[in-house]
Amino acid sequence: MKAHRFDKDRVSHGVVFSMTWENRWHPLLERWVTITGHRGSRPWQGGQVEAPLPAASFDPACYLCPGGQRISGQRNPEYDEIFVFDNDHPAFSVDAPPPEPAVGLFESQPADGICRVMCYSPNHGLRLSQLGNDQLLQVIEVWRDQTFELMTEQGFEQVFIFENNGEVVGVSNPHPHCQIFATSLQFSTLTQELQATERYRAKTEGDLFDAMIRSEREDGRRILCENSDWLGFVPYFAELPYEIMLLPKGRRRQLFQMPDQELESLSVALRQVLVMLDHLWSVPQSYILSIRQAPLGLPEAHDYRCYLKLQPLLRGPGLQKYLAGIETGAGHFLNDGVPEIKAEELRAAGQGR
């Protein structure tokens, strides 16, 4: 597919926008992404995202703080590290009732599963990036332990861990926390990625994840951090301006397959990219962090591996990335930022903190 590239740049809201128009292939989702960096400088009369006020370390009204009373009436323990509990309003439940019989071509099944909330810290005012080294590693170890329990002991096929961070994302409580969904339902994005990995193997006899790592390292412009076990980068095919992937170099399908050294390396890489996002502007980035893990029982020959993805929802200082009609209606993403330029901005933010 023909790409149209222009060298001219524009500056808007203190951010450089390259005049780049091209379609880039997303190998994991097997669809095109249009890079339209010049659109970041378009006139904007919408709302601005304000910098949040500093949060206190304890909020007596917070239902996630130590001792806080939740909507269920239960009161949290006076925890001093990480606290995990079953969500009081779960999307999936082991008690989900059987649905009414579907008619015709329609199909239904019980929304079976377990949903948990994991509080990173008793400190109400912290962000994940602000945890100490040992604390961040402990968070990752609990992610691993929760995955192991829910998959191997509870028998759920899918464990999806995600953090909604910031009001722009729609988070209901600023207390530092994430959610853990365990279900027997395979989510559609995972299905797409599994199929793409299989088709790449059939077509090239190669590993898609190895190919992505090799290609990003060969180009080099989008790499944010690298250590012996992980590579962090703004992907060539990013759908959002400051999207980040953390790919493991080892072929591990779930977090619990990773040795301690790889988890420690992950904590180092994750901190690096989170600090970049925090120091990019005066307004902290709002983001969705997700941990993509292979389903239980995947054939041994399959190449899929566990990785982390960060999807920041600001495209500029105080500017929210709203999904356009073509993105919501047609499923085709327009990236307002050029990945090579956005990676450069993130690296500079990390160095200047």
Task: Draw up the topology in text.
Layout: E1 4-12, E2 15-26, E3 31-36, E4 83-86, E5 113-119, H1 133-153, E6 158-165, E7 177-183, H2 188-204, H3 208-219, E8 223-226, E9 230-233, E10 244-248, H4 260-278, E11 287-292, E12 307-312, E13 314-316, E14 319-320, H5 325-330, E15 334-335, H6 339-351
Parallel strand pairs: 3-15
Antiparallel strand pairs: 1-2, 2-3, 4-5, 5-7, 6-7, 6-11, 8-9, 9-10, 10-12, 11-12, 13-14
Question: How does this structure look, described?
Answer:
By secondary structure, the chain is an alpha+beta fold. The protein has a domain at 21-37 and 201-283 and 299-351: HIT family, subunit A (2-Layer Sandwich). The protein contains six helices and 15 strands. The longest helix is centred in the middle third of the chain and has 21 residues, at 133-153. It is globular, with a radius of gyration of 21 Å. The model is unreliable at 1-8 and 10-17 (pLDDT under 50).
What are the main properties of this structure?
24% strand; alpha+beta; disordered N terminus; nine-stranded antiparallel beta sheet; 353 residues; 15 strands; four-stranded mixed beta sheet; HIT family, subunit A; 6 helices
